[in-house]
Amino acid sequence: MLLAAKRYELAGRQAGRRRGPLGHVALEVLELLANLVSHRSGRLEPSYAYLMRTLRRSKDAVHQALVALREHGFLDWLRRHEKVEVLEDAPGPRVRQVSNAYRLSLPARAAQLLGHWLSSSPPLPDDMAQEREDRAAWLREHKAALPLSELSLVEVEDDRLARVLGELGRAVEARARVARGQSRGDEACS
């Protein structure tokens, strides 16, 4: 995963820029998290204070690194809270945040950069597999409901080609409407 992240960083770096989409702090955070994960239980729960102290980075640098890793699909987390005993009249929150629960993942864009290094991929966690199945089913239903003029916008990544195909779809739909109108007119005459 770390090799994929480093290659992703290099591949995404624009000419003349010092950093890519992740940044060097994000790579440091990812390396630390990869070494902290408990392979027996799968738990990964470091606090911000631990990450800051270990990496010798500011809170903002750690936060920006975590956000970049999340945006690019290398990391996800769950914010956790615990109840706090307070008097009923006392102002303030009734919960306080505890350390987040993190989950590492390898995005498909980065996995493609590994090439032959990634001969067999590990099985997906059950929640991710279910989410992919649900998303695929929703996407199939959504695409089936779209008119031809809008379907190309979802299917085709090239914007110019999508617009041309959308125009073609509109023309096919217009021709179909005219044909239906003529067939109804024929039925009314007979």
Query: How much of the polypeptide forms β-strand, as a percent range?
Result: 5-15%
- List the helices and strands in order: HHHHEEHHHH
Task: Give helix % range.
Answer: 55-70%
Mean pLDDT across all amino acids: 84
Spatial gap, N to C terminus: 71 Å
Oligomeric state: single chain
Report the sheet with the most strands, covering strand number, pairing sense and barrel closure. 2 strands, antiparallel
Shape: extended
Could you name the ranges where pLDDT drops below 50 across 5 or more consecutive residues? none
Radius of gyration: 25 Å
Protein described:
With 190 residues, the protein is mostly helical. The chain has 8 helices and 2 strands, in the order H-H-H-H-E-E-H-H-H-H. A two-stranded antiparallel sheet has the order 1-2. Helix 1 packs across helix 5, helix 2 (24-36) crosses helix 4 (59-71) and helix 7 packs antiparallel against helix 8. The radius of gyration is 25 Å and the shape is extended. The mean pLDDT is 84.
Brief sketch in words of this structure:
With 190 residues, this protein is mainly α. Helix content is 58%, strand content 10%.
Topology at a glance:
Blueprint: H1 2-12, H2 24-36, H3 48-55, H4 59-71, E1 75-83, E2 95-104, H5 108-114, H6 126-145, H7 148-155, H8 159-189
Antiparallel strand pairs: 1-2
Question: Which key features would you list for this structure?
Answer:
190 residues, mainly alpha, two-stranded antiparallel sheet
